[in-house]
Amino acid sequence: MKLSRRIDNLPPYLFAEIDKKVAEKRAQGVDVISLGIGDPVEPTPQNIIDKLCEEANHPANHRYPSYYGLPAFRRSVADWYKKRFDVDLDPDTEVLPLIGSKEGLAHIDLAVLDPGDVTLIADPGYPNYTTGAILAGVNPVHVPLVEENDFLPDLEAIDAATARDAKMFLLNYPNNPTSAIATDGFFNDLVAWADKNRVIVGHDNPYSEITFDGYVAPSFLQYPGAKDVGVEFHSLSKTYNMTGWRIGWVCGNAKVVEALGRVKTHVDSGIFNAIQYAGIEALEGPQDIIQQMREIYARRRDMVMEALGKIGLSARTSKATIYVWVKVPEGYTSASFATHILNKAGVVVSPGNAYGPSGEGFIRICLSVKDDQLAVALQRIKDSL
Ligand SMILES: *Cc1c(COP(=O)(O)O)cnc(C)c1O
Known about the structure:
Radius of gyration: 21 Å
CATH class of the largest domain: Alpha Beta
Bound molecules: pyridoxal-5'-phosphate
Oligomer: single chain
Structural class: alpha/beta
Number of domains: 2
């Protein structure tokens, strides 16, 4: 049997590989603690669960959902953008629900690029940015995020030919995996650069609400002209501990939103209506969970920073996200350090190079693990060195 070249070019999905490694170690009797995957351990708030149960009992919700999402959910997203970012969105043409933002990120290339086209991808970045390109036969070109530039892309350093050929640029702030945040100046420059080079910006913003020390994260769409050049992906996954529910959206430029929506009508049949009603409850119901989770993650971040200080490892103190981006010590690569920690400490971290070549020299520690487990993991890492 012969499979496609596309599938040959598709690397194994990072987190599926990590899951496999954890399972192997556990089968050997090792008490593995995973700091590898960004997946909240705290439950979804009860009011959201109750709403799902209530709506699941309505037979009308058992039928195919609308391809373009429940109008009420789209309106709820638009209202939330207005209230939270002062961004105006037309719920009918500028908001499209997604089966988790990962789904939209995997399909966006099919909607806006042709085979052989060039797309720019922040490096390190969420693995799907690259694999979405590979699936569409698109040529992904990495734009490095380096510490000297605060893990922001240096737009001026993108050469003229690449900027001319590129049709899209996928990036994300607050950033996974580096936990960097972007300045207003950067976003304004990005809009101007994208406009000048006719590049579609896909900004991925799942961590806008997971911020610390008084920092308030922006939406890309709040910068003048942003809606003319791009879209923003967002999700309920991280904000409301809803990773398993699979609900997010893309919003912004109507042409891009319509194109992705058209692809999706042929690929899927939308999100279970009961989940969309629960999504409305998430956006419009009590918001206490956001502050609670900020406090939990900030406390864990502080635990990690203190432990790293004692171990002698260096990382920037993050102002957002559920990640700490740690420099590997002298004599290690990302992979060899992650392997060392797994074998000697029974702790899973993700190697930075798995997010792209510029991630080499780092590992990513994730804060989505209970405090006591985190404390044990940090102690074991310390003892292993
Ligand atoms: C978690 C995450 C996503 C995916 O979120 P879903 O809505 O659960 O698919 C997308 N982008 C980044 C950067 C993430 O960290």
